[in-house]
Structure formats: C-alpha cells, structure tokens
Design the sequence.
C-alpha cells in the first residue's frame, strides 16, 4: 500500500511541476520557433512558394532590438500580398496570426521583460550577428 501511495505522490508532483504556466519569455521563444518553422515549410510547399517570393529573407531573433520593425514589415507584406488567392490561403493566414501574436506579446505583454543583446538589423536578414557593441567596449578597455 505504501508503494502505491508513494507512486501516486510522485506522479502527482510530476504533473503539478509540468503544468506550470509558460512565462512570457518562454512563450516568445516558442512563437519565434513556430514562426521560423512555418515560414520554412511555406517557402518549400509548392502551393505557397510563389506567394512568399516577395518576402525578404528573415531570421527572427527575439534578442535583437530590430525584431519589432522586422515583424511589422513582414506583417505589412503578408497583409498586402500581390494576389487575393495568396492572402486567403489558410497556412498564410496562420502565419500572419502567429506573427501578429508575437508582435503583440513582445510589445504589450512582455514590455520591458525582454532583454535585447544586439541592435544588428542586418542580422535579421543574413542570420549572422556581429557583436559591434562588445567590440567597442573591448576597444575602450584596451585604451584605458
């Protein structure tokens, strides 16, 4: 009986620990990953590939201070795709919802909770961030 009771307590604790609500930061990271995966799939899928040719290359990084501008630009492009058929595709509508949700969460819900480590706007198009600020601080330390 003690073995059954101990197993019950352990399973209950396991479910309580795993049922904790996601933090604002974890939700932002999850949405960021979902958007990048959806975008990659849509760019490969033959029915939506031609619709997304107008989108610039995009590598979302929620730690980049330029991410809000990039999200706003992509939302605008997706809202104004060249053909109505592209705008009405369910997968593209889903992508727009995810991007709008991420934008809203960063802008309103997580306001001042996120820390931006870089301001390299080119990194959101190339995927390669250059640590300019760190180099400048290193140069200042060397001069002292």
Sequence:
């Amino acid at each position: 009986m003690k073995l059954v009771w101990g197993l019950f307590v352990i399973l209950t604790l396991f479910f309580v620990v795993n049922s904790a609500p996601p933090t604002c930061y974890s939700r932002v990271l999850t949405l960021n990953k979902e958007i990048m995966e959806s975008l990659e799939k849509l760019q490969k899928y033959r029915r939506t590939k031609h619709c997304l040719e107008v989108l610039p290359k995009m590598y979302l990084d929620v730690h980049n201070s330029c991410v809000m501008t990039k999200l706003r630009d992509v939302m605008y492009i997706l809202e104004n795709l060249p053909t109505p058929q592209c705008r009405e595709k369910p997968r593209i509508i889903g992508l727009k919802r995810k991007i709008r949700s991420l934008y809203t969460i960063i802008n309103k819900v997580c306001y001042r909770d996120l820390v931006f480590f870089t301001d390299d706007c080119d990194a959101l198009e190339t995927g390669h961030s250059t640590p300019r600020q760190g180099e400048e601080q290193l140069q200042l330390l060397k001069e002292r």
